[in-house]
Amino acid sequence: MSGTPRLRSAYPPSPGSVKKSYDRNAPSPVTQGPRLPMPPAAPSQANSPKPTIPFTLIDAPSQRLCVFLFYASLNVWRFTDFFGLVTDEAESLWLFMKWLAIDSIFLYGLPEFQIPWLQWSSSTTAMLVILHTFLNAFLMFRIPIPLTAWLAAFSKLLYDRELAVSERSVKPASILHNASLILGKQIIHILPEGSAMLNPNQSPFCLGGSQASVNLPIRINQTNPILIELLRVDLDTNANTIITVTAKEISRLKREADKEYAKNDYLSPRVLQYKVKETGLYRLQKVVDESKLEVQRSMSDTLVVNCPTAMVKAAPQDKCKGALSDFYLHVDATPPLKVKYSKTVNGDDHGHVVLSIHPENLISPLARQRTSGALVSLDSAAQADVSWARAQSIDIPLNESLGVSGGWQYMIDEVQDACGNVANYSHLRNLEQSQQKTLKGRRLEQNFLVHERPRVALREYDSQHPIKVEKGKSKPLPLQLSSTGSGTAENAPYTLSYLFTPQDDLLPDQKHSGSATLNEVAILHPRDGPRIREPGLYSLQSISTHFCDGEVMEPSSCLLMNPPEPDLSISAENIPDKCAGNSIGLLVDLDMFGTPPFHVLYNVRQKGGSVAPKVQEVDRLHTQLELKPMHAGHYIYEFTGISDAVYGDPRSLAHKNMILEQDVKPPAAARILDAKPARKACIEEPVTFAIQILGEPPYTIDYELVHRGRRQKHKITDIVESIHMLTTHPLKNGGEYTLALTSITDQSGCKVFLKDEAVVDVGLQRPRAGFGHLEGKRSIQALEGKKIGLPVRLQGESPWTVTYRNEEEVPSQPVQQTLRNSNDQIEITNEGTYEIVDVHDASCPGSVDLAANSFTVRWIPRPSIQIAESLMVERIGERYVKKEVCEGDEDITEVAFTGIAPFNVEYEQRHKPDSGSQSMSSKKFSAGLHMAYLRMETSEAGLYEYKFSKLGDTSYNHDQRRFSPLIVQQRVHPRPSAYFTEAGKTYRYCQEEEEEEAGGEVVPINLVGQPPFHLELEIKQHMNTKPEVINVPNIVSNHYKLHIPHKVLTLGTHSVTIRNVQDSRGCQRKMDFNAPHIQVSVADIPSIAPLEERTDYCVGDRISYTLSGTSPFNVFYTFQDRERKAAVSSTEFRRIAEKPGVFTVTALSDQRSTDACKAKIKITKVIHEMPSVRVSKGRTATVDIHEGGEAEILFEFGGTPPFHFTYTRSTTPPKGRKPEVLETKNEISHEYSKTIKASDEGTYEVVSIRDKYCAFSTQKVPGKPGQKLLMNR
Fold it and tell me: What is the overall mean pLDDT for the chain?
C-alpha cells in the first residue's frame, strides 16, 4: 500500500509507515486505469535529513502531537493577553512586538526539527508569519472584526430581546402576545347528584372506660340530606339494625358543622358528627336529599369496638435467682394487637419491648392494610360474620430468666388493637391522681424481689477429721452458710435437712446404711447449727429459705465420736543430793489414758503450810514429773483429777488415793529470772539481771562474763536475800556477751555448780541517722504535688523511729515515722527543707549526722504565659489590648513563657467582623524558647480575640485548675476603598473656551472607611502617554461628587482611575492597575428626527428615530413622568412600547458632547394601553347550577370605550385533550363592564377585544399558524 498513488493535496507518507526491508531496485507496480500525478518518491533513509529527535526515542505522530499542544498553549497565552489588555497604546505596541517575535521564532524554528508533514518551505513559513502578524495586529490594537456583528446576528436568533421605552430588555413576544390582556373564564356545570361518605379519614373508634360514646363523621358534599340511614351490625350476634337520622337531627348536625367554615363558604364539604353509644360495624345505608332522590354514597365500613385494656395477672413477688418470671399479661382487645411494656432492674431502665399478638386461626380483614371500602359483604348471613371484630381476652405469658438479684419491675405502657385504638397507660400514670380514673382496679405493674440461693457446707470437719464429743453431751453441727451472690448468708431462717446413721449401723466403708434417718431443722442464724449428740455419720442433704432451695457444697459429711474417759496411774522414787546425801525431791512416772493433751491436777502441801494446787500439761500418754521443792520441809503430793482434749471437765481421782509424802532438804541453787529472751543492750551501758537464790544464807555466787572468747570471772559474797539484782560493769565493746552462773555456796559449805546463763546482745555502735543523696546531692526539684521519697541512711537495729520536721512550715511540727530498712525513705508531699532531729533504733537512742541532717525539696515551677506591656500593648482589666492596626498590615505579639521549654500552647482565635456572624478557630503551637512571637491575624477587618486556654511544658501537662486563661484583643480596621458609583461609564463634556461655560457631569465616588479621606486620581488622555494626577484632600463624607477640572481635559477621550485612598486612621489602599475606571469625552451637539409622523401608538408598537452626530448617542426622554436616558450605538434609536404613557424625547448627546451641551428638543408620542378584559374577576370560576337554572357572566374591560369583544363556549374535556368550541358570539359595550346570563354548560372565555385605539386577539392569524392576531386602529 506504500506505493499507492496520492493526490497532490494528500499528506506525504509518514516515515513510520515505510517498511524496513524492501528491494530498492524493484520496479514500481503499474496501476490500472487513468494515471494520476505521482508524488515525489520518498527519499531513502541514507539521503534523507535526520530528525533532531530520533524516531526511536519519540515517533513522528507523537512529535506532531507535542507541536500541536505547544502551539495551542501559545494561543491560550495570546488570548489571555488580549482579554487582559487595557486601553493603552504603549501596552498594545509592546504586546504586538512580543507576539511577533514569538510567532517568528516558532514558525521559522519548527522546520529545523525535520518532523514529517511539518517541513515547510521558506515561502510557506513567511506566509504563516504574515498571517500571524495580521492576527496579532487585530488582537493587540483592538481593531474591530466583523465576526462580532456575525455573532450578534446569530445571538439575535437565539436571544430575541429589545429595549423598551423603560430602558429594560424585554421580549417582544411577551408584549405582543400578552396573555394577561384576556384573563379569566367561567365554567358552568350542571350539578350532578350529591355525595356522602361515612368516616372519610378512616379514624379508629372504641367504647369503654371513660369513653361512653363516639362521634361518627359523615361527610356530605353538594347536598342537603333530609334522611340518613345507618346500618349497624352487632359484633356479638351479627344482627343487623337500621339507625335512622331524622331531618331535624340532620339540621342540628349541619349547623354545628357550618361553624367550622366561613359564612360565605357554601361549597366546601361538611362533616356531620353523629353520636353512637354501641359497638358494632357501621355502614352508610341510605342518604336522601331535599329533592327526594337518593344521594350517591361511598362504600366504607367503620368499626366501633371495645377500647383495648390490659392488666397484669397477679403472681408471687418473691423469686429465686435464675428462675423464670412466669407471669401473664391479660389483654382485652380486638386482635391482631400490639402490647408495649417496659422493664427496670434495680432501678436501671432496660428499655421497651413491643409484642405483636395474632391469635391462631384468626382470619381478619384488619390484618390487611386498607384505606376504605367494605370490610364484609352483607349479601348473605354467612358473609355477614363480624366475630373477628369482637374483643378477645388473651393471656400473654412472659417467661424471662431472672439472672440478677434485687428488684425487678414490669410495667404495661401501651396496648393497641387492630383498628388503631391505643390505650396509653404510661401517659395516664403521669396524670394527677384525680385524673387516673382509667387505672382504678387495674394492675399495670408486676414487681419481683429476686433472692440469692443459699449454700451450705461443713466447717473444719469432714469424714477424715471426725468430731469428738464427750459422752452424753452435744455439739453444734459446724455449718458454713453463704449465698450464690454476695457470699454472705441472707434471708434467714433456713431449713436444713441431714442424714444420720448411728456408729454401730455404719457400713464397713463408713457409709450410710439402710437404717439412716433424715432429719430436718430450722436455723435462725447462720452460725446456729443443729446440736448433735449421738455418735455416727452426719451428711448434709439440702438447704433452703422461705423463697429458694440452695446448694450443698463440700465437705458435707462428718463423723461424731465419743472417745474413752481419761485416767491416770503413778509410780515415784526419791532424788538424793550428791553432796549432803539428803533427799531433794521425787521423780514421778505418769501413765495417762484418753485423748492428748492431758491436764493433770495435783495439790502440794508443806507441813504447817497451805495447799497449792498445780496443773501439769502433758501432750503424750507417758511422762516423768520432777517434784523438787525449793525450800526444806515435809511435803505431801495428792493427785486429784485429770482431763483430756475431749473431756474438758476434770475426772476425779480421789477414789484411787494417789498421795505421795517426802521430807526434803534441797541444796543451794540460783537461776536468772529474766534470762529469756536475749537481752538487747546499748554500748557503754551496764546490764542488770534478777537472780533467784535457794538454800540457807549467806550465799556466795561465782559467775563469768564471756565476750569474743574472753572470760571475765566475778564473785559476789555475803548475799542474804533470795532475789539478788546482779549489775555488770559498762559493756564497752559491741557484740554478744554471755552471763553464766558457775556455782553457788550456801551455809552448808556445799558448792553447787550452776548451768544457768543469759545472753546480752550489745550493739556494735550507737544508732545513727542522716539523709542520703539523690543524684549526688541532698536537694531535689520535682513536679508539684508528686509524692517524693527522701532517702534516709540508718545505722543500728531495725526498726528505727525517726523524728523530722519541715523548717519552712509555720509552726514546724515534729513528725515521727518508723522505718524498717537501713536504706529507707521518708515520703513527703510538700516542698521545704526537711531536718532529722532525733533517731531511736529497736533498743537504743542514737545521734543524727549533722552533715546530712537536712534535705531541700523544691517544686519545678509550673509554666506560665505573659504578654509584655508596652506602648503597643495595654492591659485593661483582665485583658491585654493591642494597638489597632489596618487590614493586611503585618503585626506580631511577643509572648513570654516561664517553665521548661518546649512549651505547648493552645489558643482560641475569635473573629467578630463588623457585620455578619463571628467565627472561632482553635489553634496550637510549640515554642522551643522562653520567648515566642504570635503572628496576628489581619487578613480581615474586625475585632480579634486570642484566648490562650491551654499551656504545658516538658514537665507539666495543662492543668485547668491552676491555669488562668490569658486574653489578647486587637481591633483590625478595614482598609478604605473608593470606587466610582458608575464604573465604566463615559461622561460627556462640551469643548468650550471657558470652564464656567463648559459645565460637565459630576462623577459620584463612594468611599468606604473612616472620614476624612485623601484621594489620589489619575487622568490620562488616550493620545498622551503622560497622565495627570489629581489629589483631593479632606473628604469629610463617604460620598463625594467629583468635579473634574477643565484644565486637565482636552478634546478626545480620557481615562480616569483612582490610584490611592487613605482614611483618618492612616489605613490606605492602592487600587489595582486594572481597577474599574470611567471615561470622559467632549463632543458637538447632535440632532434627532422621528421616522413616522403619527402621534398615537399602541403597546407593542416600535417607535423609531434617526440620529446624526458621532456615535454612541445618549437620548434623553421622559416617560410616565420619569426622566430617562438611553444609550444608542448606531444612528437609529428604536424602542418598543412596553407600557402606556406619554413618550417625549427632550435632549440628545453623542460621543463628543455632554449633558450640559446636549441638543434640546421635544418630540411627543402617546402610547395607549392595549384593551383588556377580565372574565369572573380574572379567575377561573366554576359555577354549579341545576338543570334549567341560569348563571351570570361578568365581563370587565380596560382601555378606551367602546369595546368590541368576541367570546366562545367550549367543552370541558379531560386533562390532556383540547376543548371543542361549541359557540362563538360578538358583543359591544360602551361601559367598562357587562353582564351576560347563560344557562348552557361549558367553558366561557373571551378570544378577542378591541377598543378605540387598539385591538388584541388570541385567535390564530389566517395562514400563519402559531401567531396571535394583533390589530391597531
Answer: 83
